[in-house]
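Support request, please re-run this one:
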Amino acid sequence: MRLTSKVAAVMLVAMAGLVLSAPVSSAEWFADMFAGVSLTQSHDVTIHDPIVGQGVYKDTDFSTNAAYGMRVGRYFDSLPFLGLALDYFSFSPNIAPQGTQREGCMLVTGCGTFEGHTGRIDIQVRSISLDLMLRLPLFKTDKVPNGLVQPYLSLGAPMFITTVTPRTSLQFRNQHDETSVSVGGKGAAGVSVQIFSNLNLFGEYRFTHTNTNVDLESAVVRTASFDTTFNTHSLLMGLSARW
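Re-run finished. Output below.
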């Protein structure tokens, strides 16, 4: 399915409203920007063509690529270890041309296990989530009551917007792409260190999980489904403004 920018904007505003609903005086606010690298675990890719047949490309490798995002949220004065955050995250687990084992029943080869080739398929994954933030303030002072060092955890159930674009695959047209929307899971752990009075430096590991299923137009003008799972490990560094 295609997701218009208007729909995405409405959902973003709705999530932001939950974070921004309380008075400023009742919270410590923060805004983060971060970037790093993401590694998606190998996984089976299923392509089902209603005429040619269904093939499962076993243990398909995904490329390691840059990842980036931003986050805005607040910690509560009454519960300084607890917070909420609106998180945006983007990564690209592309499929490079590769040979894999292909299992399934195809019109030409019949049923069994054969050598298959994926071609190049570009994938962009974007996520939006409302996260629960938990932190442990360490090395508190009178000037820094929330601690100079803050280990933290983040948990959420993001909405994933995944765009799949075939590039050099014989089965699909190069110019067509399709987008799917799914819900998955996310967990993160990191450490934030104050470097200036209102600025922190942080490092974060995050794990995200989601599935995607899109219908792509094949080279003979018919749709074929593309189905796989993304289990992604990301190492990120960023800056956090506090006020």
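Residues 5-242 form a domain with the Porin fold (CATH 2.40.160.20). The chain is about 5% helix and 65% strand.
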